[in-house]
């Protein structure tokens, strides 16, 4: 156990060391985020053939997608708190274990049950991204922190955008099992790089994990996200959907009551209620909603038959390739967003990002009818997402103590996940209601797609409006990322 002076000495040595190898640390963290998010899009090219591959129905096969979302949402806040208690580097290594094991199980799967188990384990690995963002605060010198956070934050979008064409190519020209073996190998490499190149991070918090709080939040989130994501299949007025949503309200209210009274809460709701943290999380939900709307719409328009009059008749591989540049745009824009945050504050960057997203959706009014138009739309929206995602952790970390960094960033990631889940449900309802008959099969109509894009535009404008109510910027860029905060209480290093 280290004293306060020991911890200060440890941190001083660590920052000095990272001055010569911070580029390697940032690269490892970014690759870790890309690989973790890549695992989420692995099965997208397989959705149509999963029932045949696994010998099940299309409805049951959808659990291969749903379980990953649920597992990630439930475990991410817990991993964030464990990172504060035991060290973020240590917990990133822990996250790599279910990621690798899940890939291996999926690679061997021949039926639904092992595939769902494997995909659930892969979802648990998503906690690696907010942990990595929080760890940057511990191991990098202040002048490197802003750009590095922006790059790490954008890795979620980069992995998703690049994963689609990569997965489509492998699925089309090789065995689908290669997708999971390749992901397992990449995850192992990432774990090894973290072990070798990322410095040990200090444990910032004291206490123990709030097991009751973890179970309560997990149960509430499962009910909420399950009800929202499966409501269209089960019927929004069905007993099971209404029961799950009602149980979610009761469980989450009970969880909030418990967290305000327990000594070592899983999430410090008093910190979360601070205006800057609360409004950033609200904006994160809306940005997540807006970001996901176009990803659901564009891929469908690209692949629908040209005979519909608005479909572009692309194969899965071609559609993925048309969408891939959007991920690269997020990588290119992240350092620009960091410089904007340093000059004007992350609040300005989040506003700019939201407005650029709205502009991208607005362009769909005139560019929706061609592949090049879709490329422009997705790239502009991704530029906005890159600005927005890079600014959120900076806003969060400038408003929370060092001892809460992991939990606060993980909770913010959860807010984005809730936004994307609600987006999938809302856009799904819109597209299912506005349809045409094509050869005896209902397909989403052009009007349905345009309505969905307008909803995404409206959500981006709401995000900008919410961000404008945030407190003004707090001095220099160093304070924006939390380095000007008073030092946290002494902690044990991991």
From TrEMBL:
Annotated Major facilitator superfamily (MFS) profile domain residues: 25-474
Chief place where the protein resides: membrane
Topology within the bilayer: Multi-pass membrane protein
TM spans (from-to): 24-49, 61-79, 91-110, 148-166, 178-197, 234-258, 278-304, 316-338, 350-368, 374-402, 414-436, 448-470
Matching PROSITE patterns: MFS (PS50850)
Entry keyword Cell membrane: no
Name of the featured protein: Membrane transport protein
Organism in which the protein naturally occurs: Nonomuraea gerenzanensis
